[in-house]
Amino acid sequence: MPPTHRRPRAIDTSRHFCPHTGCDYRGWLGLGNLRANGHPNGGQWRQFHCTACKGYFPEHHGTLLHGKHTSVELIVHVIGCLAEGLGIRGTARVFEVDPNTVLQWLVEAAEQLRAFSHHFLHDVRVQQVQLDELFALLSAVKDGTVSEAEAIERLERSPQWVWVAMDPESKLLLVIDVGARTLAMAQRVVHHVVQVLAPDCAPLFLTDGLREYMTALLTHYGQWVQPSRRQDKGPYPKPRWRPLPQLLYAQVVKTVRRRRLVRVSHRVVFGTLEAVNAVLAPLGCQINTAFIERLNLSMRQHVAAVGRRVSTLCQGEDGMRQQLALDHVYYNFCLPHASLRQPLPQLVPTNGAGSAKTWRPCTPAMAAGLTDRVWTLREVLLFRIPPWPQPAGL
Ligand SMILES: [Zn+2]
Asked: Which residues contact 117 (CB under 8 A, 6 or more apart)?
């Protein structure tokens, strides 16, 4: 698009794209074909004009807020309350909305949030991935609200575990899912991890003692190997499915007796102990301590919150997967992580009488280099996700 000689454009259109079918510029960012067109009829939404197809569209086109008569603030606050763990019924009571409406908004938001995760979480490069599955009713049992027998009985009916894959360095939550403790679920989680990572990224995998991880990892990080013939003559032996030479996988098994950690043992399954320790050494931890540190830090608090929610959801509330999609984005993009904060080069004075700011908040997504800022839930919900991947540098 040729530049015009009028006053410089003040509205940033770089995050928007033309949605009109038949337009050559449809779905592409940063082509300079869009002009901000003010707020039609004094409404709250800005309008954009595509100079290529002469079409118009509002800034919230394609988001869940498009076509809603409810105030944006209400929807954003309701989703925010759900993200902070209030639960569907609690949120419905606070805002005096029907629980079914809250659920409906959550379902619609989850679609947006999944696409948001998908848009940002790809080709991630990490040094290690820790996989874990946590007993969903753990916190409820600890609080004493649910007896252990009752929890197990409930789990027999619908066994729910929170499956988590995270990078302990950036605290980025690669995958979070809920399901039974089965091979199918392990395969599903590992498959998601592989999809999120860059194709040539082969991190160190650390898991607990669950055997199914080994099969799942071998499935995704394996190759056919033709063994050499023992003798000069005769048929070639059948090819074998073997782990890739760069695959590193270790299990860390914790023995807990009377809620106290008695013993930690480890087992290097694929690769060598030297190679595993070479990955862990720059991070300042050893194989034995890696898992415990992780559990003592962020994960426990966060997964406990998820677990608490899952346990209420196990009691028959809907929207569990949607809630997880929300948790995934909220944790990665919106919640600054205390252990990731960076010192500011100089102190920033605050408006009031408080002490000056000394830290720059940092979310896991920022630490992983996926974004350069802390997102608000409003921004996330209003983000127009391009229909296809954009060229790098946009
Ligand atoms: Zn257009």
From this structure: 325, 328, 329, 332
| Token digits of residue 233 | 């003559």
Question: Ligand 1: distance of its center to the CA of 71 in Å?
Answer: 28
Per-residue pLDDT tens for 340-376?
A: 777 777 777 777 777 777 788 899 899 999 998 999 9
Q: Tokens for 107?
A: 């379902």
What gap in Å lies between CA 149 and CA 160, rounded to an integer?
Answer: 15
Check residue 229 and report its DSSP letter.
P
Tell me, in angstroms, the distance from the centre of ligand 1 to residue 315's CA.
48
Residue with tokens 């600054």: 336
Name the token pair of 369: 């280099």
Mean pLDDT of 101-107: 89
Paired with 240 in beta bridges are 225
25 CA to centre of ligand 1 in angstroms? 5
Instruction: Give the residue among 298, 300, 323 at the shortest CA–CA distance from 310.
Output: 323
Backbone angles phi, psi at 369, to 5 degrees: 80, 20
Torsion sign (Cα): 93, 302, 381, 350? positive
Q: Per the confidence metrics, is the pTM higher than 0.85?
A: no
